[in-house]
Amino acid sequence: MAWDNVLGVAIVMGIFGLGILVVLWPGEKHGRRLLTRWGIDRPSDEDVTEAVRYLKRRRIAYPCLFVLLPVLGDAAGLAEDTPWTIVWTLLLGGLFGELFAFRPPKTAQRRAMLAHRKVRDVIPAWALVLLGLTTGAGLTYYAAHGRWQAVAVVAGCGLVAAGIVALAVRRPAAGDPVVDLVLRARSARVATGLAIAVPGALFDAEMSAAAVGVFVLGLIALRVVAGPHRSVAAAAS
């Protein structure tokens, strides 16, 4: 794609990203709904504030990502594929959000943890095993067919997801311990679910029945892994 066309796409996507940011900019109701869906039925005002801050950290980067990703995606042959721009925006937004959480605002309430979080506290082992299996299978399949762009996408998504899980475990605690765990778990599970679904979504336009089945299974895995889990809050209470 010519650079003038890439620039035009980037500008359009940037405006689209800015519009998405305005529409999705979180407020109190968004924070309260997030916590309720994840098993915290009566969140305090401080809990809601922490959840809103969590959402803002992820969404603030959306406009910039929508501008930059079409340019970067042009090198991988995905510049005109809006769904992939959205997937990468969600993953990288989550990564930036966890990085921002390493420097919580001075006004944020922080509480000492009695024990360090472990990976299994934020995501079950079977989900990580599934991530490894799908990523490995995707890398093997696409490498065998010489689809190196798909190999790069699968590897990149897997690495970003692994980074988000690691950051979700290691970042400083903030706010109520149960809320803190729920937000960590949400970050890890959403990133892992997206990365699990990616390998099955990169087949050619003319998909076979088997490819469609793999794609559907990927979506089911995404829903199961990333969907709200009220058990996280229950286990931490």
Automatic annotation (TrEMBL):
Give yes or no: UniProt keyword Lipid metabolism. no
What transmembrane ranges does the database entry give? Answer: 6-27, 60-79, 85-102, 123-144, 150-169, 181-202, 208-226
| Keywords for the protein's UniProt record, in alphabetical order | Membrane, Transmembrane, Transmembrane helix
Q: Does the keyword Transmembrane apply?
A: yes
Supply the name of the protein.
Conserved putative membrane protein
The protein's organism comes out as Amycolatopsis japonica
